[in-house]
Design a protein that fits this description.
The chain is of the alpha+beta class and 290 residues long. 16% of the residues lie in helices and 31% in strands. The longest helix is centred in the C-terminal third of the chain and has 13 residues. The termini are far apart.
């Protein structure tokens, strides 16, 4: 009935075609893209600030040089798959409705290797070391990946190679930490430097820079050095360097230092605005009982 009205090919393709066209010829196996690969590159903050090129060495599965990726021994050909009869597909169920799926034996190729290549043992792939140079742009962040096209594993049935993704790792800096496009340096100063003010040298990516510390600087105060940060990948804007000072209290005093500090302590009662305000609020909290 279906043949009379021209529906034979339509229903045959949907329910019982098994991957064959007219005359029962096996359809060509679809091209498959190769697997992507991943590796990592460690960068310093200096390299992130200026951009760099990294030599990457990795191992990938390439086409076997002996069988040219076919898997069969040179001079031989794969045999016809007995499971699917060379169609690459198998049908399940009976009657009018059938479920068609890829043949589990030949993976859709319609062929099986009866005489495998001695070098790749029939896989068509052998491990191969690869060394390439990858350009890393300025301002990349930890965990970002640089894509290198067609450096992954080869495809199958004429499919293209996959890609290589190089993920960025940032090597810790001895003095600087990254905060977006800004850099942060934690610098210790003495309590006399904080009280009297001073000029200190702080580390930056372009070398030591002088920074003025004003008198009365408090612990944790942060200062900014313009334009000494990292570039933004998209806008090209360069961030700043932040310098956070830590006021150190001496743990050991000699007799002269102790004598001087004791003399100073006699003169400072009530001169600290924050201490004075704190004591005032404390007395109010306890109803003037202090």
């Amino acid at each position: 009935i279906f043949s009379m009205f021209g529906f034979e090919d339509l229903f045959g393709g949907i329910f019982g075609g098994r991957g064959r066209g007219r005359g029962g010829a096996r359809q060509r196996t679809a091209a498959m893209r190769g697997y992507d690969l991943e590796t990592a590159a460690e960068l310093t903050l200096d390299e992130i600030a200026s951009g760099t090129e990294k030599t990457i060495e990795f191992t990938r599965q390439d086409e076997c040089s002996k069988c040219q990726g076919k898997g069969a021994a040179p001079g031989t050909k794969p045999g016809r798959c007995q499971t699917c009869g060379g169609s690459g597909q198998v049908a399940r169920g009976g009657g009018f409705f059938q479920m068609v799926s890829t043949c589990p034996t030949c993976k859709g190729t319609g062929e099986v290797i009866t005489n495998p290549c001695s070098k790749c043992r029939g896989t068509g792939r052998t491990p191969k070391k690869r060394v390439i140079t990858v350009k890393i742009p300025r301002g990349v962040h930890e965990g970002q990946a640089v894509r290198v096209a067609r450096e992954g594993e080869p495809g199958r049935f004429g499919g293209p190679r996959g890609d290589l993704y190089v993920y960025v790792k940032i090597k810790p800096h001895e003095f600087l930490e990254r905060e977006g496009v800004n850099l942060l340096a934690n610098v210790p100063i003495t309590f006399t430097q904080a009280a009297l003010g001073t000029t200190i040298e702080v580390p930056t990516l372009s070398g030591p820079k002088k920074l003025r510390i004003p008198p009365g600087t408090q612990n944790g105060a942060t200062f900014r050095i313009k334009g000494q940060g990292l570039p933004d990948m998209r806008s090209g804007y360069t961030g700043d360097q932040m310098v956070k000072v830590t006021v150190e209290t001496p743990e050991k005093l000699n007799s002269k230092q102790r004598e001087l500090l004791e003399e100073f302590a006699k003169t400072e009662n009530g001169t600290s605005p924050k201490s004075k305000s704190f004591l005032k609020r404390l007395k109010k909290y306890f109803g003037g009982k202090l």
